[in-house]
Design brief:
The termini are far apart. The protein is globular and about 45 Å long. By secondary structure, the chain is of the alpha/beta class. It is built from eight helices and seven strands; from the N terminus they run H-H-H-H-E-H-E-H-E-E-H-E-H-E-E. The protein has a seven-stranded mixed beta sheet with strand order 3-2-1-4-5-7-6, sandwiched between helices.
Length: about 230
Amino acid sequence: MPGSSRTLDDLRNLYQTRKGFDSQQTTKFFDGWAATYEEDMETLKYREPQMLVDFLNANFSGSREEAQVLDVACGSGLVAKVMAKVGFRHFVGVDSSKNMLDQAAQSGLYQDLKLALLGTEPLPAQTGAFDVVIIVGALRECSVPVSVVRELYRATKPGGYVCMTRVDTKTEPGEEYKVSFEKELQLMEEEGLWVKVNTKQKNNYLLDPFNRYEKEQKEQYIGGTMYMYKSLK
């Protein structure tokens, strides 16, 4: 991967160009960012994948070595890299960005990688095939619509887990997304599709790229919520 020379201010400017994007525009944005994405996210102190895998690992009761994992919106493969460190071995990745999938392929961790624009195209996953379905960072108004949550559930084996993060963007569309998303989670629980295992709020997913603050001020982070559900049927 070529070295990234982007500063924090560069990344703030990059993020500003993404405001108001729809899912197709977001895909093009990540296609253009793929080559330096992981190094740039280190600059932003991106902790969301590690936090969700720690959350999953603390609540997962199955065999990590045998578990089949569907990594949705897998990007460059950051989540699989963290999961592999705690014993998970079998990964299928899905993303809308071909260039991100090319980066994920270089990790050597995925048995299969599939291209799909979620919400526009169906999730390319066999029904009831996965012990863990995980999605990090993409459940937001500009990327993956709330309707995809049921597709995540359908890909999960009975007794399997769906593990998700949602980012608090502190915008009106973001608040609307949060309300709709959590309403769907509750509705699916009421329908007997799954049961909530745990939820946890975090306030430090990554440095807030939308706020500018002086060096002498305390660093500001974007946070959100982690969710884990167990499929019942």
